[in-house]
Amino acid sequence: MKKKSALVLNESSAGRIYGSREMEEIRELTDLLDGVVTQDVLESEPMILHDVELIFSGWGAPVFDDVLLKRIPKLEAVFYGAGSIRGIVTPEFWDSGITITSSWAANAVPVTEFVVAQITLSLKKFWQSSWIKSRASWASHPDTSGMYDTKIGLISLGMIGRMVAERLKSYDVEVLAYDPFVNQETADKRGLGVRMVSLVELFSECDVVSLHTPNLPTTKNMITGDLILSIKQSATFINTARGAVVDETGLISALAERPDIFALLDVTDPEPPLDGSALYELPNVILSPHIAGSQGPECRRMGRYTIDQCRKYLAGEDLDWKISQTMSETMA
């Protein structure tokens, strides 16, 4: 007999993450409850998940607190079709022993692609050169270097940092990295192809610095204004991680003082920046609305990961993307 399952997230996310192909496979694997169980449905029909054993979820998932868990007494596993699970898990959830997987590795793919593209454009000084439209000056930037004999710095070697490092192996660049939990011996054993340095060294030596640090109490405002000020001439700082990891006041001050450097910010704190923020006005800042992660059809990749994990779960196999409580405390 198939295990009973349900889609538990908001309507728009369900449509983005679980397409017709994914829905068909979920129905083949499980006895799927009709429709999408949203927050509104849970409020109007609190016992709708009483017999559900497996949940497919994603953005807009409810918080799995004690109240909700008591309404899903048969729940065995949650397959989360997005990245961070921090906003949905509770101590009661971890105590319950329910399995949870995340599609964070799937979401890392487009972030990695975005970062490598931004690094390439930054080393070509594309953003500065695009000013020719307003300045009517047909000339390349004097500090254009390209992807040859240049240094790229990666802050943190989690999933995305490692994937970026792997892709950069195909370029004639030197990759420097900072991660307090990774030494040179470990980086070499993993075949990352990076030179481990201090945070100060990384900013002072690299032509592009890309941030991949999770937002934790210990990493809040980790990137200070002084570090930004110390970055080398005409360098670029990229943030696709979390805005809170950067001291935004210090960042703005440094960018105002150093018009030669550039910041590409896909994330800010808060998001979007407050009305009147200098980030909207500084000429050496490019803002994008948190688009590095999965967008459009890319979201279906995250749905695929949930199905793959469900298939393994039902077969009694080890899960690739199972999240433990310890892991969750150091993830974005």
Secondary-structure blueprint:
Elements (H helix, E strand, L loop, with lengths): L3 E5 L2 H7 L2 H10 L1 E7 L1 H6 L9 E4 L8 H5 L6 E4 L10 H6 L2 E4 L1 H20 L2 H4 L2 H4 L12 E8 L3 H10 L3 E7 L5 H6 L5 E2 L2 H7 L2 E4 L13 H5 L6 E4 L8 H10 L4 E4 L19 E3 L11 H16 L10 H4 L4
Parallel strand pairs: 1-2, 1-3, 3-4, 4-5, 6-7, 6-9, 7-8, 9-10, 10-11, 11-12
Helix pairs in contact: 2-14, 6-9, 6-14
Fill in the keyword field for this structure:
332 residues; alpha/beta; Rossmann fold; elongated
Q: Return the average pLDDT rounded to an integer.
A: 95
What is the CATH superfamily of the largest domain? NAD(P)-binding Rossmann-like Domain
Please tally the helical runs, counting DSSP H or I stretches of 4 or more residues.
Answer: 15
End-to-end gap: 37 Å
What is the CATH domain class of the largest domain?
Alpha Beta
Instruction: Name the poorly predicted regions.
Output: none
The structural class is alpha/beta
Do you know the CATH topology of the largest domain? Answer: Rossmann fold
**SSE string, helix = H, strand = E?**
EHHEHEHEHEHHHEHEHEHEHEHEEHH
Q: How much of the sequence is in beta strands?
A: 15-25%
CATH architecture of the largest domain: 3-Layer(aba) Sandwich
* Total number of strands: 12
How do the strands of the widest beta sheet line up side by side? 8-7-6-9-10-11-12
CA radius of gyration: 22 Å
Shape: elongated
The major pleated sheet works out as: 7 strands, parallel
**Total individual domains:** 2
Helical content class: 25-40%
